[in-house]
């Protein structure tokens, strides 16, 4: 389970860096790495980043606010 959380965290970081680059510089890192020929791979990565974000919501489960 710890390995899954580390993978999810890495995907979230990749996604946030990519969105930051898009927002500030209009540069899509993922699409530029894989190019237009591998658009399907880019879509898979974007989907995994999205699922990772949804899974990360569970990280707040069980945390107490003091």
From TrEMBL:
**Keyword Transmembrane appears in the UniProt entry:** yes
The organism's place on the tree of life at top rank: Bacteria
Q: Which InterPro entries does the record associate with it?
A: DUF378
Tell me if Transmembrane helix is a UniProt keyword of this record: yes
Q: Which Pfam families match?
A: DUF378
Q: Where exactly are the transmembrane stretches of this chain?
A: 7-25, 40-60
* Keywords of the record: Membrane, Transmembrane, Transmembrane helix
Q: Which PANTHER family match?
A: MEMBRANE PROTEIN, MEMBRANE PROTEIN-RELATED
Q: What is this protein called?
A: DUF378 domain-containing protein
According to its UniProt entry, this protein's organism is Aminipila luticellarii
């Amino acid at each position: 389970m710890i390995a899954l959380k580390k993978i999810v965290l890495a995907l979230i970081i990749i996604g946030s860096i990519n969105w930051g680059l898009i927002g500030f510089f209009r540069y899509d890192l993922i699409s530029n790495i894989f190019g237009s020929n591998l658009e399907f791979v880019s879509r898979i990565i974007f989907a995994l980043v999205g699922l990772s974000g949804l899974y990360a919501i569970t990280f707040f489960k069980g945390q107490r606010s003091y």
